[in-house]
């Protein structure tokens, strides 16, 4: 039995730690995200600032350039106007074709400048141009008429036109052009001033912004680097946690599997051998139950260092769970080397451990496998080491190497089970019968039916080679049905031939747990037309003590039908007669291990004698099985044992052979010699009377 060690007194806090670690991990990720975002924002801010700054400067200088260009055009216009005025006056003093031509050119210049302003200026400028043009056309016409008056030397008309028509229009034009020019000059100055201010601002703001930005970049990248570093170490810790056992700090199953694969790969490559030990502590449950889980946990934590201390550096000690450990032995050399290591580890573990003032002795069962001999891949080897460990534990052998014969799960076993299932269906199962004779009269009191399997390739297979693993699977059900049918058919046949011989059938513990079993027996008896008195049922003491109430119910039901019940292999277990006395039992079969040593072992003699007396005290018939010699037969008769069964009387035999033996014996008047040939029974000697 294995028990899981407690999660430990710090289990709840363990949960808190893992929650904290998880929240820190989460916090770390958040930090990294915030820092990265900060970096992006700062860099985007710097870019934005540079773009905004250069955009602003470009805009201000464009405005300044535009204003100065317009102011320039207005200046050209103003100059043209001034030229018109001066030429107009000049014409009055020195009239001539040349002055008039130059006046017309000045007018053309003015119109040209106005056209440029209209094209490149804004709505206000276009308004100014319209108003100047509106005043300029009549001005030109008036100037023309004034020039004509000059040519006619009509001084009065000249003065009148000048005063009334030319001057007012000229003044209006000068005012309009002058105002526009001045306004654009002002705008130009303002734009230039703004540009200058902008440049002054840029002079300190640009380096300041970039310095600040760089500081933030350094800060954020520092935070980011630290956070990433933390995340990395947390990830490393998480990987470590995933591959190690929390309680002992040893590698866990996953890491073992990984190293195992590597070691096997290296073995295949280099032609070496990898060994694996599975270690299970004995009686660990007792430590847990009597001293508490915290002591159990401390004990488990002390196992790792003990094992590691007795191994090479290249070996791996892992905790598989509970009180189960595994040791991986790369390049171990041979099976003997692995077994030696296992024995050494067992010795190291055997040194007492002191925990909380209590001295604890640790014993361990160790299963051993090596690559090649016991399997090629890690899962198979691990499973086989586990099987070997269970065998070591069950048989109290300490260290055991894997043996496929003891493996209920080996492929050979599984395929044999399949073959047995088919064998039952195909009628490969048959019965041997072994007689039981009365030590008082020499009469045959009955026979025991023993299952045999005629395997198509393996030949005859004995019950001891397949019953126990049929019992571990559902196969024991169909097997018992088959045996019962064969036995009852045989009982019917013998009874019909005038030999009503009782037949005993062995019934497993599992079958005895079936509440319906007695009904099934009743049906089969009816089916075969066999009286219940011709059927006996043999059950082992452990079958009865497994689930006493249910077994007792089924046995009482059987007894009620008239079927006799025998306790088989008595003495092999730990049951006392007191436990059996409430059951409807007729016979006690002393286990053959006591009978086989009866001649040689004084203790056996004492035990057998006591068992016989106790059985009689409970009104039971006592049967001795495993009687192999006349001497033992004599001793048993001396002890007043009732019935004997064994090779000396007759070996188990097929029904026909048994009947021949039976008839010969009857002819001989229940006297003769035992057959030495296993399956050739003959009449045995009469038992000596005590
Ligand atoms: P068991 O009920 O104790 O049967 C007696 C076993 O001891 C038989 O082995 C028999 O061949 C052997 N035996 C008989 N006389 C002697 C002797 O003088 N010396 C020695 N050394 N051995 C002797 P077998 O037939 O191999 O059966 C082994 C066990 O298998 C049986 O032990 C019984 O527990 C079980 N078994 C046999 N047939 C059946 C069956 O049909 N159903 C169930 N459930 N179990 C069966
Ligand atoms: Ca038996
Ligand atoms: Ca027996």
Give a brief rundown of this model.
The chain has 690 residues and is of the alpha/beta class. Helices cover 62% and strands 13% of the residues.
Can you describe what's shown?
The protein has 21 helices and 16 strands. The protein is α/β, with parallel strands linked by helices. Helix 1 (11-93) packs antiparallel against helix 2 (97-120). The longest helix is centred in the N-terminal third of the chain and has 89 residues, at 155-243. It is rod-shaped.
Distinctive features:
single chain, 690 residues, alpha/beta, 8-stranded mixed β-barrel, 5-stranded mixed sheet, 16 strands, disordered C terminus, binds ligand C2E, binds calcium ion
Q: Topology, please?
A:
Blueprint: H1 11-93, H2 97-120, H3 123-152, H4 155-243, H5 253-270, E1 275-282, H6 284-291, H7 293-309, E2 316-321, E3 324-329, H8 335-350, E4 353-355, E5 358-360, E6 363-370, H9 378-394, E7 399-401, H10 411-426, E8 429-438, E9 444-455, E10 459-462, H11 467-471, H12 476-496, E11 503-506, H13 509-512, H14 517-528, E12 535-540, H15 541-546, H16 548-561, E13 564-570, H17 577-580, E14 587-590, H18 592-596, H19 602-617, E15 621-625, H20 630-638, E16 643-645, H21 655-667
- Evaluate the radius of gyration: 59 Å
Shape: rod-shaped
Largest sheet report: 8 strands, mixed, barrel
Main sheet: strand order? 8-9-11-12-13-14-15-16
Beta-strand content? 5-15%
Task: Give the fraction of residues assigned to helices.
Answer: 55-70%
Helix/sheet category: alpha/beta
Low-confidence stretches: 1-24, 671-690
| Ligands bound to this protein structure | ligand C2E, calcium ion
Task: Kindly report how far apart the N and C termini lie.
Answer: 47 Å
Number of strands: 16
Q: Mean pLDDT, nearest integer?
A: 86
How many separate helices?
21
